[in-house]
Design a protein that fits this description.
By secondary structure, the chain is of the alpha/beta class. It has helices spanning 12-24, 53-56, 62-73, 88-93, 107-154, 205-217, 241-251, 254-257, 330-333, 344-354, 360-375; strands at residues 5-8, 29-32, 47-51, 76-80, 97-101, 162-163, 166-173, 181-189, 192-200, 227-229, 236-238, 261-268, 274-280, 286-288, 294-296, 300-301, 315-318, 324-328, 384-391. The chain has 2 domains: 5-129, Rossmann fold (3-Layer(aba) Sandwich); 155-391, PPM-type phosphatase domain (Phosphatase 2c, domain 1, 4-Layer Sandwich). The strands form 4 sheets. Strands 6-7-19-18-14-15 form a 6-stranded antiparallel β-sheet. Strands 8, 9, 12, 13, 16 and 17 form a 6-stranded mixed β-sheet that branches. It has a 5-stranded parallel β-sheet with strand order 2-1-3-4-5.
């Protein structure tokens, strides 16, 4: 359907001539001898063709009001001037007058200018539509990220300071983006505490949703992975760490989720301090002995989701009175200073050793304060999680 045009000129003869020419080109035309606001018309025009004589003889504030109306309604405007020397400086100042027609009587020039102006108007509208859609999409994305962040925060376990001989402390520092760190500490039975720390690759909603799914897979109430029913006392069997990682590898193939993740999975006896564990590509937990020795619990296998059929290995260790075990994500060791230098495992271990005689809660807190100080103005680009576990029998004489 042809788009409506509006011609405004005080010259009745010129107005009639332009109307005839434009109608010959197939455009419906309305002619006015003065300024008419597009919003006052039943059908706003696609283009206003305006004679600059109307600007030279303005009536009150009509010209400014008309310009504002055109801007508000996004009406394309094409000025024409019959003067020998057209006032181009005037055109440049009078937005939204986009172009000037020097010979309004020339049919070819008239057609070319009208078509060009209509094409420009169409592109402008498409650009505005795209911009509004982009703003809407950005708003929806930010809302989704906020929701994903809230879900991720809700998975953080309820603070628990002690389980028999085990003391716990942790600190989670989310990055600006929604990340994929997940951890939990759960008592499976009187002899077993499950501790795990997961780091899903990437950032954003997909990573957050994988953490939710993994949380469900490792939930005592919604999963068969960590505890299996049997038909004789005690009527359950706690799954070994290496078997849990194999179950996760089968459940989270990369082609299904387009994500992979690392995990440290441990079973700890809260009475004896015995540890069974396995890692899937995760930074090895650090066992800091009361004597000052450091052991890396590095046994395990590759990351979950890469389709590896190599069996996960299982490691064993034992905590003695005063020993501390730290689980962490690579958001710590890969945090950098303003020069791009990584914090690294060496600095991290040294910092933990300086906190050996500090209460566990303070040791965890101080370690991350040191990390932030190292980074200076550089903000972490990944989630940072640090979990501290101390074997502290009630009758032990060491400070805790």
């Amino acid at each position: 359907m042809p788009q409506q045009l509006l011609v405004m000129t005080p010259d009745v003869t010129l107005g009639a001539s332009l109307c005839a020419r434009l109608e010959k080109l197939g455009y419906p035309v309305t002619v006015a001898t003065g300024l008419i606001k597009p919003s006052a018309l039943e059908h706003p025009p696609a283009i206003c063709l305006i004679d600059l004589e109307l600007h030279r003889n303005p009536t009150g504030g009509l010209w400014e009001g008309w310009l504002q109306d055109c801007l508000t309604a996004h009406i394309a405007c094409l000025a024409f001037d019959r003067k020998a020397t057209p006032d181009r400086a005037l055109i440049a100042r009078l937005e939204p007058l986009g172009d000037i027609l020097l010979q309004p009587e020339n049919l070819l020039a008239l057609e070319d200018k009208v078509r060009t102006t209509l094409a420009t108007r169409k592109l402008f509208r498409q650009l505005e539509t795209a911009r509004h859609q982009l703003v809407k999409h950005h708003s929806e994305l930010q809302e989704s990220l906020r929701s994903a962040a809230l879900i991720q925060r809700s998975l953080i376990p309820t603070p628990r300071s002690r389980l028999h001989n085990l003391l716990f402390a942790w600190k989670f520092m989310p990055s600006k983006q929604v990340g994929g760190d997940l951890f939990n500490i759960v008592q499976l039975d009187e002899q077993t505490a499950m501790v795990y720390l997961v780091d899903v690759s990437g950032h954003g909603i997909s990573s957050a949703m994988v953490t939710v799914s993994v949380h469900q897979s490792l939930s005592l109430h919604t999963s068969h992975v960590i505890k299996q029913q049997i038909d004789h006392p005690p009527y359950y069997l706690i799954t070994s760490p290496q078997s849990v990682l194999r179950e996760l590898e089968d459940e989270y193939p990369f082609e299904r989720f387009q994500e992979f993740f690392t995990i440290s999975y441990l079973l700890i006896n809260p009475h004896s301090g015995e540890i069974r564990y396995s890692n899937a590509g995760h930074p090895p937990p650090l066992l800091l002995r009361r004597t000052g020795q450091v052991e890396r619990l590095a046994v395990g296998g590759t990351v979950i989701g890469m389709g590896s059929r190599v069996a996960f290995e299982e490691g064993f260790a034992r905590m003695n009175a005063g020993d501390r075990l730290y689980l962490y994500t690579d958001g710590i060791t890969e945090h950098s200073d303003p020069d791009g230098v990584f914090y690294g495992e060496g600095r991290f271990v040294s910092q933990l050793l300086t906190q050996a005689n500090t209460p566990l809660d303070a040791a965890v807190q101080n370690s991350l304060i040191a990390l932030r100080k190292f980074g200076g103005r550089t903000l972490p680009n990944d989630d940072v999680t640090l979990i501290g576990i101390e074997f502290a029998p009630p009758d032990a004489t060491q400070e805790t």
